[in-house]
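WARN  no MSA supplied for this record, continuing single-sequence
INFO  ligand: nicotinamide-adenine-dinucleotide
INFO  echoing inputs
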Amino acid sequence: MTTFSMTIDGAPVAAEKTFGVVNPATGKVHAEAPDCTPQQLDAAMQSASKAYRDWKSDEAARRQALSAAGDALFAAASEIGPVLTGEQGKPLGEAELEVFGAGVWFKYYADLEIPAEVIQDDDQALIEVLRRPLGVVAAITPWNFPLVLASWKIAPALLAGNTVVLKPSPYTPLATLKMGELLAGVLPPGVFNVVSGGDQLGGAMTAHPVPRKISFTGSVSTGKRVAAAAAPDLKRVTLELGGNDPAIVLDDADPAAIAEKLFWGAFQNNGQVCSAIKRVYVPEALHDGLVEALVAQANSVKVGDGVAEGTQLGPINNRPQFERVSELVADALSSGAQAAAGGHPMKGDGFFFEPTILTDVSDGTRIVDEEQFGPALPIVTYRHLDEAIERANGTHFGLSGSVWSSDPERASTVGMQLEAGTVWVNNHLQLAPNQPFGGAKWSGIGVENGPWGYYGFTEIQVLHRSKG
Ligand code: NAD
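INFO  complex generated
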């Protein structure tokens, strides 16, 4: 078995205790990850705190280091990719692309120009709005995209002059630990620390006195716990939480033309994407044509071990999530829904589930109302567009949504009525480093990416210089 180390103060730290990491394609423990002790967490926080003193003062050095980190990630895609597939389940090509994608985020922030903000410059005064770093950032990530979601935090946080202690999900710690080892080669000691452990380690980080900011991506329920834990110390928080994204198909859409994009908007990463399509609203007249086209997609997809040639969808990442998806689909079927495709777990030891298209299902059924976060998509009919918009907005979620139509202007008008952080027209899941991403309502607080994501790792300082 490969040994995985945490990275604290620029050096690999051997595990005093470990916990098992399961390969979701086999359902078996295939590696051991360090279980960070309270003393090791303290050491990581102290190291980050110490490193902050110099790191915050040299912007040119920070940009150079971020660029080097991007290059290091590009070069390590084929080495870290298999580690990510082994713990997460996604196809190898997508895992390598994720490592590469993390590098893209580092490169983007290495080059991002932050314009000077002068709000007054006359014979009375020169007044500037400056952005100061916050200090140590505690970053906490989920198991669906461990590396790229970490890069959304680390790169802007470091550019702003903060230092970071990162904790990945206990289901997917390994590739992140590898990233920590890799970046220790290009970042000064203590600037970026990686610790691993169970959920309680996340709690210990949010309660720790050192971090000044918690940047969290995960579920709504944990996000609320993080916000509560940050409050007594007034730590800043960014929360990127769950979604139940609606796709609204308008009556002028062509089902055959949109089905492929719509399918992958829902099933990318086996449906385990916060902003994946989680429910489709379709006019009654288009229902049968759309279902037929989506079923053809679902039945043609190759599901298997992510390391196998040609695999398009891997397993669900972990047993609790596999059981949750199984339960939500079974609940819908027992309430009268039909599985037009799939509908069942697949045989074998891994956490494989058939790509599932559900019909005869509506709001009020758990799989429509809750976030399923897996390969099962309910298709819901509507009669009047206003009613579809109201139903799409009728949840606590507000991450993203999409509108599908042969008239993009009309679709945009509908999209602007969605209570969501991002709305796509005739597409879904298109994300980029320069595009802010965040949720309305219970889907989050704050945004990541672009200059807006950078600002989230800073606080404003007004420098007011009197003249004359
Ligand atoms: P989760 O909330 O269970 O865990 C996320 C992380 O929080 C893990 O590292 C976990 O160990 C840690 N954690 C658990 N309890 C904690 C506590 N009390 N204090 C601090 N940290 C704690 O989420 P998950 O199951 O890993 O991920 C799936 C969820 O994440 C879905 O709801 C999905 O929509 C959401 N998500 C959101 C985004 C986004 O950008 N909005 C992106 C990806 C995933």
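The pocket of nicotinamide-adenine-dinucleotide is lined by residues 140-144, 149, 167, 169-170, 199, 202-203, 206, 217-219, 222, 225-226, 240-243, 274, 371, 373, 399, 439, 444 (CB under 6 Å).
INFO  checksum written, moving to next record
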